[in-house]
Amino acid sequence: MKLSSVNTIWVLLGAALVFFMQAGFSLCEAGFTRAKNTGNILMKNLMDFCIGTPCFWLFGFGIMFGVGSSVIGWLDPGIMRDYSHALPSGVPLWAFAIFQTVFCATSATIVSGAMAERTKFSAYCIYSAAISLLIYPISGHWIWGGGWLSQLGFHDFAGSTAVHMVGGVCACIGAWMLGPRIGKYDRNGKPKAILGHNLTAAALGVFILWFCWFGFNGASTVAMDSDVAVTSAGLIFFNTNLAAAAACCVTLIFTWIRYGKPDVSMTYNAALAGLVGITAGCDAVSPLGAAIMGAIFGIVIVLAVEFFDKVIKIDDPVGAVSVHGVCGALGTILTGFFATGVSTEKGVFYGGGFHFLGVQALGAVSVAAYVAVIITAVFFIIKKTIGLRVSAEEEITGLDVSEHGLLTAYAGFAMLPDTASVMDAEYEILGDIPASEAVPVRKVTIHDGMEPKFTKIEIICKESRLESLKNAMIGIGITGMTVSHVLGCGIQKGKPEYYRGVPVEPTLLPKVQVDIVVSKVPVRAVIETAKKVLYTGHIGDGKIFVYDVENVVKVRTGEEGYDALQDVE
Hints:
Layout: H1 3-31, H2 38-64, H3 70-75, H4 93-114, H5 121-144, H6 148-152, H7 160-178, H8 199-218, H9 227-259, H10 264-278, H11 287-311, H12 320-338, H13 355-384, H14 392-397, H15 399-404, H16 419-424, E1 454-461, H17 466-475, E2 482-487, E3 498-499, E4 502-503, E5 510-518, H18 523-534, E6 543-549
Antiparallel strand pairs: 1-5, 1-6, 2-5, 3-4
Helix pairs in contact: 1-2, 1-4, 1-8, 2-4, 2-5, 4-5, 4-7, 5-13, 7-12, 7-13, 8-9, 8-10, 9-10, 9-11, 10-11, 10-12, 11-12, 12-13, 17-18
């Protein structure tokens, strides 16, 4: 196999992996937000890639690599040679173009998470196109297309600044101009936790992104045709993984100390923070440098999320601004400290002085400033024309319904019946036995010379005590009970828990509700047994409520009263 063919396969493999990051971003964003907006989020992550692809094909690629307009190049094959200065050795135009296209799409999709749950879909499509047409290509030209930053020696190997910080800055401006989600802050400006609906999906999304990052960083060598390239790729893979792992470990410990328990969603964000941060210098730092940088990202991501959430009150549901904006810029600058001099100038810690560090800082600041100005103008125009944010009623209902007419993205798993089928159906009696042959109704008004009394006992307790309570109830003769998962708190407001650094509302403490209706079994026996089983002496042991019940009807047999409670045939 020719060495040029090896390079082409390597670039195409990397492009495929980076494309698959769209799936990771989709799952991560959907999991960290509420179920009523899932369809909208999935649609946005599809369309930013589909809109960005033709935009980058027609204009963005040419702007980024110095031709001016890709349209001219695609229509006139004779001008293709103008791209030769930008193409890596042995890599065909189309292979390099698709590699750059998926990078552009990654930058655009970052914005979706920070602006989730309250942005008009039409507005999203417009500013996503603007990112692919103008914002990413121009700053990308400065860094990778032979522009002024590359001439100064600015080093951003795979895009901490060119891709991630660009998306993070757009996300920050967008979330700020949108304003927070309804219910995010109380009257005093105190943030409230809005929990994501599916942490499993978010976790899977993070693992997909982590896996794909090996293509994102590793394939940015755009070559595997020499021992030097292979060695570099190995170091890049190792540093990429190490930084992410170190960030997770540090965030786990940091949140454990800070909140009393290790924060799950924040630790998953730390993995992304480590991956984003190391992307600029993954080829230029040693494994020790990558580990130290990862540890720094692990602390910074927590403080950054809290800063945006609590201090300047920019509502970012998934932490995109902190992960991509803050850690992207920080990783670029830290490369100026930790670069060993193998593929760049030496960093400060390796005797290189402050020149390279200054170039790295200048690059991050100048790109951030450019992106902030352009995206602010884009958002302002959208806001004054078609509008940027949905109405309050649409936001409360959910964007799935209001923007797409999608009743639920989880139809097969919904606990509620299909509304249309229930309303349109003709009611009929179901079952194997015809109604005419059903057991006759026997109304019981007197039993053993006394009018039967029915009592409902409702027990609210910790889920961990459910099995013991159930066994104890069976032991005293209770043969039927209903168990429901509920959320609530007592007057003591419960023990505070934290979600992404924000105290969770005490009304959201998980409990179980056990409902029992008795007649034969003494009510006092049920109460005393429940008290004995549930008592620990700590706050949150639960409460017991007692109600009078007028009647009981067994659906299968038609029996009423005392006999309806008996399961004897």
